[in-house]
Automatic annotation (TrEMBL):
GO terms for molecular function: ATP binding. Transmembrane segments: none annotated. Keywords: ATP-binding, Nucleotide-binding, Transport. This is ABC transporter ATP-binding protein.
Length: 262
């Protein structure tokens, strides 16, 4: 079933001195309920802008973004959980009370919040760190807390903007495996931004490849491998073939931009 529709979306930013940046040009996309969608593309192609539009943090210059499924609009809670590129935890709050924050803001009662917070810390593998402060946690652990926090008010849609971009390669692999496990357990609809082809192929049901000048969708690729996937699987021929196709699509976009003088 279709959770969300993006129709003919354009987004233009004013870059001062009468200069405009066309961050998104005629973006059309449907997001299926329960899928893991990845937005992939080079820096500046509008990934963050599209994610912020999906999350309602920004509005389109023209076009529309709509929830289609009524199951996504339950109670008064925000239908969105957002994980930003940098962990944005409150330094004076423990891991648990950071996780409880969004539930707090959504008006969920204290006892329920606490129970849910502990269950979520358990889900992200941090049940022994509930009373630690962010400074006492590694970067990977902080992003796990951010993920738990994003899930705390039980939103149907989880949006993640390069959440593991600042982590070293090995920690990132571990986090991707963990994220897949968490997603398989929670079955949220997920939209995940990355500029890493490998990360995209590992995580995605569908990959939306974006291109720059102006920011737009270049191609959409399905990844039909069974789950749970392992990091070793990305070396298998079928995975490599998809990565190769994505690299070709990226190259084609680059060449087109060069021909157009962009
Ligand atoms: N608030 C803003 N004001 C002006 N320009 C912006 C703003 N946000 C993004 N842009 C521009 O829009 C384009 C797309 O940016 P962004 O969505 O951040 O791309 P990505 O996340 O793919 O790197 C870039 O050219 C960027 O400079
Ligand atoms: Mg970005």
């Amino acid at each position: 079933m279709n959770l969300m529709s993006v129709r003919g979306v354009n987004k233009t930013f004013n870059a001062g001195e009468n200069r405009e940046v066309r961050a998104l040009d005629n973006v059309n996309l449907t997001i299926e309920e329960g899928e893991f969608l990845v937005l992939l593309g080079p820096s500046g192609c509008g990934k963050t802008t599209l994610l912020r539009l999906l999350g309602g943090l920004e509005s389109p210059t023209s076009g529309s973004i709509e929830f289609e499924s009524s199951s996504s609009i339950h109670q008064d809670r925000s239908p969105i959980g957002f994980v930003f590129q940098e962990a944005t935890l409150m330094p004076w709050r423990t891991a648990l009370s950071n996780v409880e924050l969004s539930a707090e803001l959504s008006g969920i009662p204290a006892a329920e919040r606490r129970e849910r917070g502990l269950a979520l810390l358990d889900l992200v593998g941090l049940s022994n760190f509930a009373d630690k402060y962010p400074r006492e946690l590694s970067g990977g652990m902080q992003q796990r807390v951010s993920l738990a926090r994003a899930l705390a008010h039980d939103p149907p849609l989880l949006l993640m903007d390069e959440p593991f971009g600042a982590l070293d390669a090995q920690t990132r692999d571990t986090m991707n495996v963990e994220l897949q496990r968490i997603w398989l357990e929670s079955r949220k609809t997920a939209v995940f931004v990355t500029h890493s082809i490998q990360e995209a192929v590992f995580l995605a049901d569908r990959i939306v490849l974006m291109a720059t000048g102006p920011g737009r969708i270049q191609s959409i690729t399905e990844v039909n491998f069974p789950r749970p996937r392992t990091i070793e699987m990305v070396e298998e021929p079928e995975f490599r073939e998809i990565a190769r196709k994505l690299r070709l699509d990226m190259g084609a976009a680059h060449d087109r931009a060069a021909t157009l003088g962009g």
